[in-house]
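Following the same procedure, sequence and fold were stored together, as reproduced here.

>
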Amino acid sequence: MNKSDLQTLTDTRVTDAKLLLDAGRFPAAYYLLGYAVECALKACIAKQIKEHDFPDKQLVLDSYTHNLEQLLRISGVIEMCVSNRHLMSRAILLGHATTGKPRGAGATATARD
């Protein structure tokens, strides 16, 4: 499975979760969204491996998990959020100022690039 496959799977699971949410099936929607987050984080990890490079064995082994905290760390998403927290705060504030709700409210985010 490659980055593109994981992105497609993420999008599919988010769509499925939205249908379940709309049907009032909250536990099932919650479960599928967790699965979507896992796929998105794994897509971020897959992006770290360059074509024709032999991947680091420990990175590969550590990636075979369902532990979201571990996947957040391996994917680099935590570091990105911490280093860009001032930009994220500004984006949230701008969203509030123009729409009255946080930017991206109601939108779905996936692991793209």
